[in-house]
Amino acid sequence: MSDFLHRYFLNNHSKRCHKWLHYFDIYERHFDRFRGKSPTVLEIGVHGGGSLEMWKAYFGPGSRILGIDINEKCKQHESEGIEVFIGSQDDPDLIESVFQQHPKIDVVIDDGSHEIPHQIASFQLLYSRLDPSGLYLVEDVYHSYHERRGGGIGRDGTFIDMVKHKIDELNAAHTRGDLPISDFTRSTDSICCYDSVVVFERRPQGLRQAVATRAM
Ligand SMILES: C[S@@+](CC[C@H](N)C(=O)[O-])C[C@H]1O[C@@H](n2cnc3c(N)ncnc32)[C@H](O)[C@@H]1O
């Protein structure tokens, strides 16, 4: 696994970039397959613009990096291959205009408001429209455990609560019809949960085969 991002972050003397250090191994593990393949990457939450530059350097010259931020000043962080959309991450019209201009999005990183309703709304607006081999990563999901943010252990309606239901949905074929096989079931390969980060990886799903073999 490369340590490009970790090194880039620690040696960054350019624009402000704000990340938890343990996220870098997670990025490297899941983003590697997109490197050098000219992906379109959307990050929700631009702030100082440093992360957009970091993604550009990591994903390579052919990549297109899109940012969404509610703060109009973030428009200043646009440059060659980096485009910023201004508006709220839960605004369907904004998301529609992003897809109008960029129909194929490979990677989404939600580092926006971190408010639970925003995390859920963005996921619902974006996930099913990503490339069939795309990836959706949500940062700082610990808000789902903070009471002042509407969270709490086992509490209904949090982002983590939604993830738990999505784990059931991913396994719908094994519920003997109790859960319908949904578009999510058909299009999702994995859900990886880390401390404060959840990663959904898309891949068209086919028939399951349980095969037994034995030695000759
Ligand atoms: C944590 S900062 C982003 C940090 C940046 N990704 C980085 O790594 O340095 C969060 C950003 O989300 C933006 N934000 C807050 N509420 C938002 C919303 N509803 N929609 C879009 N962006 C929002 C803030 O203006 C802020 O710039």
Characterise the protein shown here:
With 216 residues, the chain is of the alpha/beta class. It has one domain: Rossmann fold (3-Layer(aba) Sandwich), CATH 3.40.50. The chain contains 7 helices and 7 strands; from the N terminus they run ααβαββαβαβααββ. The chain has helices at 4-10, 23-31, 50-59, 92-101, 116-126, 159-170, 183-187, and strands at residues 40-44, 64-69, 82-86, 107-110, 135-138, 188-194, 197-202. It has a 7-stranded mixed beta sheet with strand order 3-2-1-4-5-7-6, with helices on both faces. It starts with a helix and ends in a 14-residue tail after the last strand. It binds S-adenosylmethionine. S-adenosylmethionine (SAM) is lined by residues 17-19, 43-48, 50-51, 68-71, 88-89, 111-113, 118. S-adenosylmethionine binds at residues 17-19, 43-48, 50-51, 68-71, 88-89, 111-113, 118.
Low-confidence stretches: none
What is the CATH fold-level name?
Rossmann fold
Secondary structure class reads alpha/beta
CATH superfamily: Vaccinia Virus protein VP39
Quaternary state of the chains: single chain
CATH architecture: 3-Layer(aba) Sandwich
Radius of gyration: 18 Å
The CATH class assignment is Alpha Beta
Q: What share of residues are in beta strands?
A: 15-25%
List the helices and strands and how they pair.
Blueprint: H1 4-10, H2 23-31, E1 40-44, H3 50-59, E2 64-69, E3 82-86, H4 92-101, E4 107-110, H5 116-126, E5 135-138, H6 159-170, H7 183-187, E6 188-194, E7 197-202
Parallel strand pairs: 1-2, 1-4, 2-3, 4-5
Antiparallel strand pairs: 5-7, 6-7
Bound molecules: S-adenosylmethionine.
Residues 17-19, 43-48, 50-51, 68-71, 88-89, 111-113, 118 line the site of S-adenosylmethionine.
